[in-house]
Design brief:
globular, eight-stranded antiparallel β-sheet, about 525 residues
Length: about 525
């Protein structure tokens, strides 16, 4: 039996929470919510209009030309044209980063393309790109890659800035600002928090896609033996939802809880993997559940039951115990925490219908704490593997779709029996800003993720945001030690973005060769079947 809740005055904060069935959680740092709410239309948000380009096809034959000795090309006028583009694009936040990329990529551009940029300016050259003939392909590819890189760098910088100032969210959704600073105490005693895992944790198959919540790592998590730790409400508010989970994973059965609390207007927080809840909260579940749901796949099944509504409306105060985490009889070695902004903008995702509304509204839990607590928590960001987060990763990211490129979430075209097993994610890692991951649920390879250091040129380990539709086959290898894969042998992945909505991928043995080619690729779509 959990400890009896302490008493104390609490403010009741009104938040209307949709009747969305709560998902189960796995023992490897959480599971996503299982039910999609439906297609949600979101107005596109852009900083300013950017020109589109259409690259001309490369000719299959070229005419031989006599060898000549030419003086070195003077790149100074080209650099001045790029600087002029940045100076004129003051309303485009990504322009400086795009300009920096264009300057670095000058060696990838033919002389005719650079001359056109010098004569017409960067944007003017893009408008006349068809006049370049074969050189149009190079300019189109460099521009598209730099534009994607610029927007990505700007988003990451803004996330770090927002976290330092106590506003914004690392999720990329804009969620979380309404309740910044509303949490005045930690949910677990500070000496019981060994680290904080940012948004974007990967644990295929249930977390093939980047996670929408953070984790408080508890003492003994490395050895998978965690003592029972009291969990308290970090802010004053009202209990609005409770959920119980019965899980059977590879023959191991266990039970845990989720507790959702309204702590500010239109904002709720949620804790998962709680081993027990207090007797006062337990009493709220004596009546019939609002809903129950069973999901998963063979050998990995969960049943969740949810209680919400007037019968679950219970005031709590900051610091009041709501249950425990860890302890004997549970595989859970962490406390999961979500923050949900029910009034803010939904996160941008190419296929929003594939996601529950709660994921589209998720923000960074760290940003809801008071300044002193938030600063301390940011200082202990890390992965459960022990890798510390660098500054540029901020609170991590959930949605990372970049249209027309390989980056983001994909879904198998081939039907797969079992929840999550159609997922594929080509995303940034949540601790190393210069690394990305190939995260696989099934089909292409056994469940796992493969991490590599990105490159900004060539076709090997190219940043996913720079792998454009029609740019050919790209190869990925040289994976980090914390990646999955066959022990003691090299492996690689081939990826090709066929068009804006379709991707081919194959897992092969050996490293990337000079001319990689598919033998039996799998087809993935931006849209879930």
């Amino acid at each position: 039996m959990a400890a009896t809740a302490t008493t104390g005055a609490a403010s009741t904060v009104g938040t209307t929470v949709p009747d969305e069935t709560v998902a189960g959680e796995d023992s490897e740092l959480g599971d996503p919510d299982p039910e999609a709410i439906g297609t949600v239309e979101v107005p596109a948000t852009v900083t300013s209009a950017a020109p589109t380009t259409a690259a001309s096809p490369t000719p299959t034959t070229t005419e031989a030309t006599p060898a000549t000795t030419l003086p070195p090309y003077d790149d100074q006028p080209y650099h001045e044209a790029v600087d002029a583009f940045v100076a004129m694009s003051t309303d485009w936040l990504a322009a400086p980063a795009i300009g920096d990329c264009m300057a670095r990529s000058r060696g990838q551009l033919p002389v005719t393309a650079k001359d056109l940029i010098v004569d017409q300016g960067l944007l003017g050259a893009l408008e006349q790109i068809d006049s370049l003939g074969v050189a149009a392909f190079s300019l189109g590819q460099v521009w598209s890659g730099c534009k994607a890189e610029g927007e990505q760098v700007t988003a990451a910088s803004q996330a770090v800035s927002d976290s330092d100032s106590g506003s914004g969210s690392g999720s990329g959704s804009g969620s979380g600002t309404a309740c910044a600073g509303s949490l005045t105490t930690l949910p677990v005693a500070r000496d019981q928090i060994m680290g904080v895992v940012p948004l974007g944790h990967l644990a295929p198959p249930s977390h093939t896609q980047s996670t929408d919540h953070i984790y408080f790592l508890l003492p003994g998590y490395e050895q998978q033996e965690v003592p029972s730790v009291p969990v308290v409400s970090p802010g004053a508010g009202s209990i609005v939802k409770l959920a119980n989970f019965s899980s059977n994973t590879t023959g191991t059965e266990f039970m845990d809880w989720q507790v959702e609390i309204s702590t500010c207007t239109d904002g709720t927080i949620k804790f998962g993997h709680m081993t027990t809840i207090t007797a006062e909260l337990q009493a709220l579940t004596e009546g019939p559940a609002n809903s129950c749901n069973t999901y998963g796949y063979t050998g990995y099944m969960h049943t969740s039951c949810t209680w919400m509504g007037q019968g679950v409306n219970l005031a709590v105060s900051a610091g009041q115990q709501i249950g425990t985490a860890g302890g004997i009889g549970t595989p859970n070695t962490q406390l999961d925490m979500w923050v949900l902004d029910w009034a803010g903008e939904l996160a941008a995702a190419i296929d929003q219908s594939a996601q529950p509304e709660s994921i589209l509204r998720a923000g960074c839990g760290l940003d809801w704490f008071t300044t002193d607590l938030r600063t301390d928590l940011y200082s202990i960001r890390m992965e459960s593997s022990g890798i510390r987060a660098d500054e540029a990763t901020g609170c991590g990211k959930v949605f990372q779709d970049v249209a027309g490129t390989a980056k983001g979430f994909w879904y198998s075209v081939t039907p797969v029996d079992g929840k999550w097993l159609d997922n594929l994610a080509l995303v940034d890692t949540n601790t190393r800003s210069d690394h990305q991951a190939i995260s696989v649920a099934d089909l292409v390879a056994d469940p796992g993720y493969w991490i590599f250091q990105t490159r900004s040129a060539g076709t090997v380990n190219r940043d996913f945001a720079q792998v454009m539709a029609g740019s050919g086959v790209h190869c990925y290898d040289s994976f980090t030690a914390d990646s999955n894969g066959p022990a003691g042998t090299a492996d690689s992945f081939l990826i090709e973005v066929v068009d804006t909505d379709t991707l081919r991928i194959e897992h092969q043995g050996g490293s990337c060769g000079a001319s990689p080619s598919f033998t039996s690729p799998y087809l993935y779509s931006r849209y879930q079947s």
